[in-house]
Specification:
This protein has 20 helices and 27 strands. The protein is of the alpha/beta class. The protein has a 7-stranded mixed barrel with strand order 21-22-23-24-27-26-25, surrounded by 4 helices. The chain has a 6-stranded mixed sheet with strand order 7-6-3-4-5-20, with helices on one face. Strand 1 and strand 2 form a beta hairpin. Helix 9 packs across helix 11. The two termini are 38 Å apart. 57% of the residues are buried.
Length: 649
Amino acid sequence: MTASMGYTLAQKLIKAHLVDGDMSKPGNEIGLRIDQTLTQDATGTMAYLEFEAMGVPRVKTERSVAYIDHNTLQTGFENADDHRYIQTVCKKHGLYFSRPGNGICHQVHLERFGIPGKTLIGSDSHTPTGGGIGMLAFGAGGLDVAVAMGGGPYYISMPKMVRVNLTGRLQPWVAAKDVILEVLRRMSVKGGVGKIIEYGGEGVKTLSVPERATITNMGAELGASTSIFPSDEITRDFMRAQGREADWVAVGPDDDAVYDEVLDIDLSALCPLAACPHSPDAVKPVEELGGIKVDQCCIGSCTNSSLMDMLKVAAILKGKTVHPDVSLSIAPGSKQVYNMLAENGALADLIAAGARILECACGPCIGMGQSPNSGGVSLRTFNRNFEGRSGTADAQVYLVSPETAAASALAGVFTDPRSLGEPPVITMPDHFLINDNMIVPPADEADMDKVEIVRGPNIKPFPKTSPLSETIDAPVLLKVGDNITTDHIMPAGAKILPLRSNIPAISEHCFVRCDPEFPARCKAAGKGIIIGGSNYGQGSSREHAALAPLYLGIKAVIVKSFARIHAANLINAGILPLTFENEADYDRISLGDELCLPNVRERLQKGEPIVLENKTTGETIPLASQFSARQVAMLLAGGLLDYTRESKA
């Protein structure tokens, strides 16, 4: 980027929030001032334990919000205890608290808190949903969010800029979900790594804010740092309808902005698409899948639970009955959506058709209920279809638009919604129903000391960390292949999610989908190293995928390549993330090999190359490590929490 070049929208917002580093070259580490944060309850308890450990009395952001939307299935005391803990932390430390039932964090934040041009980080990988209204919004680990709440910068590598140039207009029955599935088809689940996806072109003007948010939401599946749309008059109309026009500002790129890549998509040329099992980029036209028997359809999640989505589904189902062989569940994204569906009669149409109405929460998307039958085909409007994520190991999960899901629920087989004739005409309301009675404000600063934080017996402290050793000698305790997700590392679901605030207990489930003996092997060895393939750690931002290995004694993870958030979480936890200089060297290491990283502490301090000695085979393997000075200091200290404490001392 030279002085004569214009800025992209993302570059403008980065420049306005830059507090550390040089943004002129992609790959440079930069620190950003964060205006807003969000957490959800699956990651929030640990984030707030970390925030408390920092000793900051009150959050320093413009607005921080804690949402209860993931662990809402209360089959024991654990989830309810976490909710109570989070609520009392919010009251004491200056956060707003969105109560259970108020809705999914990304949907509610878009409706009630998001502001164009502001920065947002959230302890959930789908926080880039906020890019639908022109926010610079990143998914992050809970510890990064805790630091931001305490007033610290959020650090990332300066991303490359990708322009997705939209032209034309979507044809009837083609949806925003089909746009992002087309982007995934072209770029793959690792095609966005190290990049910001910025949407522009005349086609942008044809998309509503909920449609834009669907697209930026699933940018997480590209591995992208974030995705963003400009804030324009359509954004203004949405915020006016939410009673928040005063928060609106126009943001967009310079006319002479220069992008590293450009992807052209003619909206009018798209057709209904589906991501096939078991990856969001395994995309095919729905018409090619016609006739496949469907057992379940689930409509909702932070991707497709807006009022517009729900009204389209209600119009398709009105006066009809769900096929007897199909279970159809519908989860509105927020209390606002649910209320408006009830008031205008659309909810009655959904119920009359035989839909099972779930609470306003993530639910099936995070494995909280509605697991399909054995070997069942499930069509979901969600963002991920990783193997086993639904709670049924052999389920065949497809990702589709609400229109495709509704049409297929009626027919009992995979159905192209274009076969239904004229589509319903749904328009954005001039005014949304505004009732924020399920959002609890914090105590006044003068009263914060009177608030007692309530901790249940399942809430355990952050795992013990220690400074990086001079040399790491440890066996290979696990070797895995490409595209390992955080669901592989630290599964979700109704049985495991209640343990999110109890690292010793949840570590018993670490990597069991890949190797059931892994936790026991770790305990027997005391310390170890993990070997992995490319795109290691894709998916959720859950820092538990780093904290559980930390608790189990993992000292280093050596792979072909990392997903962005997970690599950051490993550094935050004090685990050394390294990559093979030559990917073929992956094949030279086996499970059980005794490995050594000699003088690794000194080599990191001096910026010298790191080598791996395989004591079992006698081979020496060169490794790549590209850490910033700050990241080196974090690793030497034992992680971000120790580094932050030392910095404050």
